[in-house]
Amino acid sequence: MTSPPRPIDIAYTLHMRGDLAAAEARYRAIVEAAGDEAMDARNNLVGLYRDQHRWGEAEGVMRDALSVRPTDNDWRFRLGCSRLADGDFAEGWPLFEARRGITRGRVPVPPLPFPEWRGEAVGSLLVWPEQGFGDVIQFSRYLPLLRARGICVTLVCKAPLVRLLSPLADRVEALQNGMALPAQDAWCLIGSLPLIFGTTLETIPPSALTSSPRQGSGLGVVAKGDPNHFNDANRSLSDEAAAELMALPGAVSLDPQDTGAADFQATAEIVAGLDAVVSVDTAVAHLAGSLGKPTWILLPYRNPDWRWLRGRADSPWYPSVRLARQPAPGDWRSAIDRVKRELASRAG
User: Are residues 333 and 237 in the same domain?
Assistant: First the structure.
């Protein structure tokens, strides 16, 4: 005898069919019943609200979940990203620390024999990488602030970033399994530096990256990100949209397979010689913005990253960046048309 479908399964089927009002009502009923499916219903409700840009209601569900599970790292992290996206760094950065214990995409804490740094006076500090290339590039702006305090900074990062970031630290080591590290007074995750420095929207430090340009000009284009990224289906362009960007005057691909760049320093030299860059939300967008290059970043409607905030066409992290957001799921046409208009206005 077949078991009747569970309430959560009925709600999810409605959700996937696009009957969002009915799905919402059923999810809400499951939450109110406070049974075994209540937390799953909250999780799906957050997704439903986020997909409609109902940010306040999504956050209300997160806070409700935390009232039931106040130490749950997944919910703390999601709320932290929501607060950061809203520009509330005071609440957001402490919650962002929960990324160390989340279920998917957990940031591993290295087993080091010296203590984690909390901002106290130290003579030497090991800065540990995390997340993607773009995250490390974004937060590298804090390395000169550490050195200005008289701290001898050793940065560990993946090999493609070593040459680019070497001017910002006293020592840069390529991340390797089983690597031997010199003794330090303390260590910290690079993504924890904004919290330690008490960063607000008004006190974001400027990027410290520079690069000598290769000869050249034109418009650099990055149409796709890492296909293994959890949101790549939303953030990368279709082949048709990518071809449209590559048809713009002076367009050149910044894909390393096309440029021959062996690392991010080589890409930085190429970018420094260009007139402007148009990119999806990937590491080269951070690189171009860090170099102060006029850059347009194409952002998806679904799951836009917290660091681009909400409802803004500019970025406090990168003053030379303009943000072109999808006005509806999958609508790259409107975003690309906006980039074309702004490029034309700049050229004129």
Answer: yes
